Amino acid sequence: MSAASSPARLRGLGLIALAAVSWGTTGSVTTLLVSHASATPLLVGAARMLTGAVLLLAAARLVEGAIRPAPGEAWRYLALGACMALFQATYFTAVTRVGIAVTALVAICSAPIMIAALATALLGERPTRGLVVALVLGVAGTALLVAAPVATPTAPRPLSGVLLALAAGLAYALYVVIAKAAVMRTAPLRLAALTFAVAAVLMAPALLMPGAVTQLALGWLGLLYLGAVTTAGAYALYTAGLRYVSASAAGVASLLEPLTATLLGVLLFGERFGVLGWIGAALLLAGLALLVEGEPR
After folding, report:
1. CA atoms of 268 and 289, how far apart (whole Å)
2. C-alpha 86 chain-centroid distance
3. 204-225, pLDDT tens digit by residue?
């Protein structure tokens, strides 16, 4: 069996795929929270970070004992936490300016490209031809998948919102690249726990917004799901999987998130899934299939 399809690598891709599917449920749950609990997206992000951090810290303490950062490693956790908090803040602020579809289109499609570029420059990854093709297919498929439901004619798109979505993609890309370097020398659960502890502290001011207590009380069940499943559980899986695959491959595998989100939108909210959507899904799945043989060497 080749190194590209080794059991460890396939296990890593499987863990990242599970995390991505979990993330794909975030939009549906957030939509319900916004409609039924009048929760603001930024508050949802802050509550998600806090809940996830508490659960990850408890799990890391139980499994690994001491969870203090090693000497000289604190900056990594600060950087990772800042990237995650910046991703949440810019993504949800972009949603309020240009809508969910455009934000997802810009942020999710730009992130894998940025990850590949940063991983090549900073980590010395050398993508194979198969991975490059998988990346192109995945990003093109995701673009069609996310853009297909956007109604026409389109409303004006403030440049600030598009730039915020790009900033979200960059913040996520930086998180992945830094996490890839860190996870090779740090236990994955500890890495995730300390990362989200920093992110939760940075996003805590959003929990003090007017009406936050009422929104949290009305939407506590959904917020608990987001914190426990799509944050603590998903990022524990993702960080563990990142140890066995390249950052570039992880970026492509994460594109299962928009596919899951789109399918849930069709099943739960009656969203239309036209020809472009099906073509996009097929391209995305083809890219993911190629990913099995496309690991950088």
Report:
1. 27
2. 12
3. 999 999 999 999 999 999 999 9
- Cα distance from N-terminal residue to C-terminal residue, the chain: 15
> Is the residue at 85 inside a domain?
yes
* SS3 category, 58: helix
Report phi then psi at 153, rounded to 5.
-70, 155
Q: Provide the number of structural domains found in the chain.
A: 1
Sign of the dihedral defined by the CA atoms of residues 42, 43, 46, 52, in that order:
negative
Which two structure tokens, joined as six digits, stand for 222? 């959904």
Largest CA distance in the chain: 58
Q: Would 114 be classed as within a structural domain? A: yes
Backbone φ and ψ for 38, nearest 5 degrees, come out as: 55, 30
Contact criterion met (CB below 8 Å) for 195 and 20 = no
Q: Are 134 and 287 in contact (CB under 8 A)?
A: yes
pLDDT digits (tens, 9 = 90+) for 220-270: 999 999 999 999 999 999 999 999 999 999 999 999 998 898 888 888 877
CB 187 within 8 A of CB 66: no
In terms of residue numbers, what domain contains 253?
3-291
